[in-house]
Specification:
Structural class: mainly alpha
Distance between the termini: 26 Å
Helix content: over 70%
Number of helices: 23
Order of helices and strands: HHHHHHHHHHHHHHHHHHHHHHH
């Protein structure tokens, strides 16, 4: 492998960008949990179920209107940014923005105009569906701005956007719930979140690249739709697979159990955000590389798993404790949460392989992988949810991940990507053994949780699953050079103990 080519992959820069991207997701999730925690105290699971179902309707609707463009366009934005081609960057972005504004505007109008008919069909109040239509409009447009900042590795800005938007949701949503608007107040809080985010992104984007350039280059339009469409069908099925769980539980068991599933999925999303942020950021970076993509992808997958697996084990072992923090009514969702967590680490492997084949432009493989994950998952929601409720929906999520993992094995062989099986087994086995020990001994969560994480990382380092180079690169990502040098000197004994150097 050409080492000079491989230098295009700046791990420190990607790690730093991924950290800010995950921090932005974490900020949104934490403030989201604060929001739902307060709302759950002020209302009931039935109200939470109604609101979460209406949010799910908007999420599914905006997925249809986006045509996969915010994801597919990152391949071209990332490449244009790597080549310092400002004109192409601006043209791709402007064309994508025009398409999304037109499509989402039409779709939102349809939802609003048919809100009465949809209300009789779904049982949701028509006002919730009207707000869902407005939410579809804002939620369909702002991901393109998000894609712009991800593709250019300016993820620190996303943190500030998510922080301000989430605070806006807290203030507006809680005030409206307090005055008695219930589920409608929660929905208007969500609309406030998306509206503030969209306005902030518009201001930041125009300062970054200037005003949109409406150059209807048919070659660019064709490329955008081609890259987006191959992602669109799997994404529609995937979002149906992720979000249909809430709708299925609501339809088969009612708002109370939909609220339980929604909260369990929200907690699991804290872990799901790790591979979504780090490996998602790898997509535009890999697209801008000419060689060294496979090695960079495996390294990213391995390091992502070293965080995802221990954290998943911790949340699974102490699931009742963490759900109890949200509210005693949600402790019953512990089994749902545990099953969801089991599926997240395999999903990280799927995500890593997916962004690699996407970066190569192997659209047929992207389509196959997306369908093998999402189609079984979506179909099984309809079978398992009536039988087992939220637990059945979680099982459908897990089974879809397993079928996707089987697909990854064949796709990896086809593209020549080597996944170190020994490292993978050890990454999974170490935290699981530690978790079982602490579970049997009933160690308090505030002692057991940090010990599982700390011992897992130390053993990973000792076994060279996390290399010394990885530690150095991560240090460079977050520490000034002088501070890093002092740290290395002070803790050199730790490095020698772990790596024998």
């Amino acid at each position: 492998m050409d080492s000079k080519r491989e230098e295009q992959f700046n791990f420190s820069k990607v790690a730093k960008g991924a950290f800010y991207l995950y921090l932005s997701i974490l900020v949104a999730n934490v403030l989201g949990y604060v929001f739902w925690f307060i709302v759950s105290k002020l209302t009931s699971p039935d109200v939470v179920g109604l609101a979460s179902t209406a949010v799910t309707v908007a999420t599914i609707a905006c997925t249809f209107t986006m045509f996969g463009i915010p994801t597919g366009i990152q391949r071209f934005l990332g490449k244009a940014y790597a080549e310092n081609d400002t004109d192409s960057l601006k043209t791709y972005f402007s064309i994508g923005l025009a398409i999304l504004i037109l499509a989402s505007g039409i779709f939102a109008c349809v939802i609003i105009l048919l809100s009465g008919w949809l209300s009789s069909l779904t049982g949701l109040p028509s006002m919730l569906l009207i707000v869902a239509g407005l939410l579809t409009l804002t939620s369909s447009i702002y991901p393109l701005f998000y894609a712009l900042f991800v593709s250019t590795l300016k993820t620190k800005l996303i943190v500030f956007v998510n922080l301000s938007a989430s605070i806006g949701r807290l203030i507006v949503g809680i005030l409206l719930v307090l005055i008695g608007l219930g589920a409608l107040g929660i929905m208007l809080g969500y609309f406030t979140l998306r509206f503030i985010a969209l306005v902030a992104y518009v201001i930041l984007a125009f300062r970054f690249i200037g005003l949109p350039r409406l150059n209807f280059n048919f070659e660019y339009i064709s490329e955008i739709f081609k890259a987006g469409s191959v992602n669109w069908l799997p994404m529609v099925i995937q979002i149906l697979g992720l979000q249909l769980g809430v709708l299925a539980v609501y339809g088969f068991q009612g708002a109370f159990y939909a609220g339980l599933y929604f909260i369990a999925y929200a907690v699991a999303s804290v872990v799901l955000a790790i591979p979504m942020s780090f490996l998602g950021l790898m997509f535009p970076v890999l697209s801008g590389m000419e060689d060294g993509r496979k090695r960079a992808s495996w390294r990213a997958i391995k390091l992502t798993l070293t965080i995802v697996v221990p954290v998943s084990v911790i949340l699974a072992i102490y699931s009742k404790v963490f759900l109890g923090f949200i509210g005693s009514s949600y402790v019953d969702a512990w089994l749902i949460l545990t099953i969801l967590l089991v599926g997240i680490a395999p999903f990280a492997i799927i995500q890593g392989v997916n962004v690699l084949v996407y970066a190569y432009g192997l659209y047929s493989l992207v389509l196959i992988l997306g369908i093998t994950v999402s189609l079984p998952r979506t179909l099984l929601y309809l079978v398992l949810t009536p039988l087992f409720g939220g637990v059945g929906a979680a099982e459908a999520f897990l089974i879809g991940t397993i079928t996707g993992l089987i697909s990854v094995i064949f796709i990896s062989r086809r593209i020549g990507l080597t996944l170190d099986k020994v490292s993978l087994v050890l990454v999974f086995l170490i935290p699981v053994i530690l978790g079982l020990i602490f579970s049997v001994t009933r160690l308090w969560w505030f002692i057991g949780a940090p010990l599982i994480l700390m011992f897992s990382l130390l053993i990973y380092a000792k076994l060279r699953i996390i290399s010394r180079e990885d530690v150095t690169e991560i240090g460079k990502s977050f520490l000034p050079e002088k501070m890093l040098k002092v740290g290395v000197e002070k803790f050199s004994w730790v490095i020698k103990m772990l790596y024998g150097e």
